[in-house]
Amino acid sequence: MTITIAPHPLRIRSNTPAWVSMCAFVFIAASACPTSAQPQKDPKSTAACPAAAETDHRHLQGRWRAELAATGSAPATTALLQLGPHPELAQSVRGSVQRGGATAQVSGDVDDGDLTLEESNNGTNISATWIGRVVDGSCGKEIRGTWNNAHPTPTAPSAPFVLRKQAGWQ
Questions:
Q1: Span 109-149, pLDDT tens digits
Q2: Which residue, 132, 128, 131, is CA-closest to 157?
Q3: Is residue 106 within 8 Å of residue 115, measured between CB atoms?
Q4: Phi and psi for 50 in degrees, rounded to 5?
Q5: pTM
Q6: What torsion, rounded to 10 degrees, do the Cα atoms 119, 96, 107, 90 define?
Q7: Cα separation of 136 and 151, whole Å?
Q8: How far apart are CA 123 and CA 110, in angstroms?
Q9: Across-strand partners of 144?
């Protein structure tokens, strides 16, 4: 049995100056180091602070606290909305709203900073709408508008609202 041993890969040939081989080795090693690439910024991206017009369905996802103003004989009230991706409409959200011990379904979207949410107490018929505008400078975390009851009553009339995104649900 004969065993042949290959020459050592870093062995410097005797007819090449040692410093030339060492420089070549250093340059080869340096060129093999990984580099990082930075992605180009997309104006419609989920940037840290989108302008009102750049706010999209992704910015709506999460937990929101709604403050509905007192109107007529109806007192001021608060509600919690939980929004996530809509399973059937790619650019929309769907979720729930909890207010006064009751839960309703909501779905909608935001387009060019304008919010439209439809609320349903029974999952079939629209019982109310949330029509609002993302506040400029709020980084997509505050929306102001009007909650409109589909069947207004003295105890449930239309009411101005302020939606604020809750911390921890960015």
A1: 999 999 999 999 999 999 999 999 999 999 999 999 999 99
A2: 128
A3: no
A4: -75, 150
A5: 0.70
A6: -170
A7: 31
A8: 21
A9: 133, 162
